[in-house]
Amino acid sequence: MLAAERLRFPVVAGGQPVLDALMLPRGVCRSSREGTVVGSEQVAAGRKMTASRLTARLGQRRKPHPASGRRAGRLRSFDPARVADLECRAWVSYYRRDWPQLLMALVALIRAGFGMDWCRTLHAAWLIMRATQLWAPIPGNDPGGARACMRRFYALVRLSCGEPASPAEAARLEVDWWRVHREAGRAAGPRGAGDELVESLTRLYSYLYGEPADDVRPAAMHRARAMDLSDEWVDEGCRPDSPLLAREHAALVRGYAALLAAVHH
Question: Do the domain assignments include residue 211?
């Protein structure tokens, strides 16, 4: 009991203890300065005052950045070459309908691109894979189901990065470029401003990053070019040693480098 009574609470500014003793009868506490016994109301008031002082001192020592600002920066921090490599792998796996490899590529891609924790990363990767599986069949795909999965994916992005403002709108724009890509078919050469696929990607980038369309359109043009090269690779039989894969990868690197420059102008 005596040992317990010698325990001390933390000391605040000026050397005044928060509380000086424990193990006293309920409702009273002994002041170490004056040796007097005080009532429970005084103790409660003292605790409130001490908590206020500690909060103020901690606030002076460390002022955390707003969560939205800190997380939003993560969406704009990625390695273009790394993201391009992983997306290229994901596309190859998708067109081969190699779902386990696609899931592995998506896990790595989401970690590299969004910096989510592992729990959210695995959930997000599964959602994207399910969205692509629902979209893939021709005919008989399920655009509504794909949008629902992508809405849940972008909700995870919002939790981790602070944006987009509306996961539902982001999902709508995402699946819209899937539709445009499927309907437009492969272009013979590079696409420019005004091309439907370029503009659909531009709308998505502009919404996700809050940047003017003119700033993110070059990134959309390079990514659209990568899609055309991927489509050409599919038309030639999806050969793993095709030189088209290196050209596709290079176009993706240029696209993500342009996107990184646009969001850090």
Answer: yes
